[in-house]
Amino acid sequence: MSTPVPNVIIHHTEGSFCNTRATCSAQARNIQNYHMNTRKWCDIGYNFLIGEDGVVYEGRGWTTIGAHATPVNPISIGIAFFGSFTSKWAKPSR
Question: Of 5, 22, 36, 73, which is most buried, counting CB atoms within 10 Å of its CB?
Answer without folding.
Answer: 73
